[in-house]
Design goal:
The chain is α/β, with parallel strands linked by helices. Helices cover 35% and strands 24% of the residues. The longest helix is centred in the last third of the chain and has 14 residues.
Length: 254
């Protein structure tokens, strides 16, 4: 939780099963406003499913999900997006044939709340805002390049910029550094550290070097439940966590 202790997102005893298989099994999770929470766990622990439940892609079988004081577990995906939860998916949704600048313009106009759109940007993201975003994600020099010419890492940063353009209070990211070079992963850690406090972030990640560079509190999932929570030091010395990772090559190699 954040220092001021204000809980923004709470999952209370949330479960979901797929054809009898319980992927998330009574998950409890509380994330404070402005927090950068890492969510780790061995393959199949239910991390992606947990993000699917939060953003409404999957409906919980039981339990409650509260965001900013209201129940969101019965809402549709677009209503949850409108309530201020953004999700970065693994497969980029950028338009490859358009430039970074054009993608950012379109990303802004995709904004879920038409009214917010009008109020905040006068209907179109102004160039200052667009350039600020490009700068934030390290794409200033690539604004006029076609998205097709971006590296894998740059494409991921553009995707992140498109989410930031919608200014969600909470952003969910599933393995944002997957497939990145070491250098790109380092830059992504810097970006996340800059976003810290401005948005609440829940980051699912296997790369423990990256987790170390960004983590405050780490939540560990195993078999659909919260297994442990704490600092990197705390969770990596936790016998239950070590046990959970046995057979997957250890905590750094899940
Ligand atoms: N739609 C679905 N239908 C059936 N089973 C599913 C479905 N989605 C997920 N599962 C199962 O639920 C379990 C949890 O999957 P999930 O993808 O959430 O794990 P994860 O922690 O994200 O794993 P990884 O680290 O490999 O990405 C897995 O056993 C998976 O096979
Ligand atoms: Mg996953």
């Amino acid at each position: 939780m954040s220092d001021d202790g204000e809980i923004q997102l709470a999952l209370n005893d949330v479960s979901v099963s797929f054809g009898g298989f319980v992927a998330v099994a009574g998950l409890d999770l509380a994330v404070g406003k402005g927090e950068l929470r890492c969510l780790i766990g061995p393959n199949g622990a239910g991390k992606t499913t947990a993000l699917d439940l939060i953003c409404g892609k999957t409906q919980a079988t039981s339990g409650e999900i509260r965001f900013e004081g209201r129940s969101i577990d019965k809402l549709k995906e677009y209503e949850i997006a409108r309530a201020g939860i953004g999700r970065k998916f693994q497969v980029p949704s950028v338009f490859r044939e358009l430039t970074v600048r054009e993608n950012l313009h379109i990303g802004q106009s995709r904004q879920t709340g038409v009214l917010a759109n009008l109020v905040r940007f006068g209907g179109s993201m102004d160039d200052d805002e667009l350039e600020r975003l490009a700068e934030l994600v390290g794409l200033s020099d690539a604004l006029d390049s076609a998205a097709a010419h971006l590296s894998h890492g740059q494409t991921q940063w553009l995707e992140i910029a498109l989410i930031l353009a919608q200014d969600p209070a909470l952003i969910l990211m599933d393995e944002p550094t997957a497939g990145m070079t070491g250098q790109e992963t380092g830059k992504t850690a810097e970006l996340f550290n800059r976003l810290r406090g401005q948005h609440t972030l829940i980051v699912v990640e296997h790369d423990m070097g990256f987790v170390r560079d960004i983590a405050e509190t780490i939540s560990v999932m195993h078999q659909g439940k919260l297994l442990a929570e704490g600092s990197l030091k705390e969770i990596s010395s936790d016998p239950q966590v070590r046990e959970a990772y046995l057979g997957s090559g250890g905590i750094g190699h899940a």
